UniProtKB/TrEMBL annotation:
<feature type="domain" description="Aminoacyl-tRNA synthetase class I anticodon-binding">
    <location>
        <begin position="1"/>
        <end position="68"/>
    </location>
</feature>
<keyword id="KW-0030">Aminoacyl-tRNA synthetase</keyword>
<dbReference type="Pfam" id="PF19269">
    <property type="entry name" value="Anticodon_2"/>
</dbReference>
<dbReference type="InterPro" id="IPR045462">
    <property type="entry name" value="aa-tRNA-synth_I_cd-bd"/>
</dbReference>
<keyword id="KW-0648">Protein biosynthesis</keyword>
<keyword id="KW-0067">ATP-binding</keyword>
<dbReference type="InterPro" id="IPR020751">
    <property type="entry name" value="aa-tRNA-synth_I_codon-bd_sub2"/>
</dbReference>
<dbReference type="GO" id="GO:0006412">
    <property type="term" value="P:translation"/>
</dbReference>
<keyword id="KW-0547">Nucleotide-binding</keyword>
<keyword id="KW-0436">Ligase</keyword>
<protein>
    <recommendedName>
        <fullName>Aminoacyl-tRNA synthetase class I anticodon-binding domain-containing protein</fullName>
    </recommendedName>
</protein>
<dbReference type="GO" id="GO:0004812">
    <property type="term" value="F:aminoacyl-tRNA ligase activity"/>
</dbReference>
<dbReference type="GO" id="GO:0000049">
    <property type="term" value="F:tRNA binding"/>
</dbReference>
<dbReference type="GO" id="GO:0005524">
    <property type="term" value="F:ATP binding"/>
</dbReference>
<dbReference type="InterPro" id="IPR008925">
    <property type="entry name" value="aa_tRNA-synth_I_cd-bd_sf"/>
</dbReference>
Amino acid sequence: EQWDKDRLEEALKTAIVEGRGMPDGEGIKPRLAYGPLRVAVTGRQVSPPLFESMEILGSSSTLNRLKALRARLG
């Protein structure tokens, strides 16, 4: 599969914001959903655009950073 900003944005929007990937089916507001992801991916609360950053970092680096966030959250 392609790892590009448009596909990343659509996948995360569908899974998190719209709630299709959430256990209760309830979505999360984008600001709340993407804030922790932004910090996990870029290390900062204020950063370049999230999806472009994920595309530039590549799938391996991005996924490793997200796995580290998941481990920290329990």
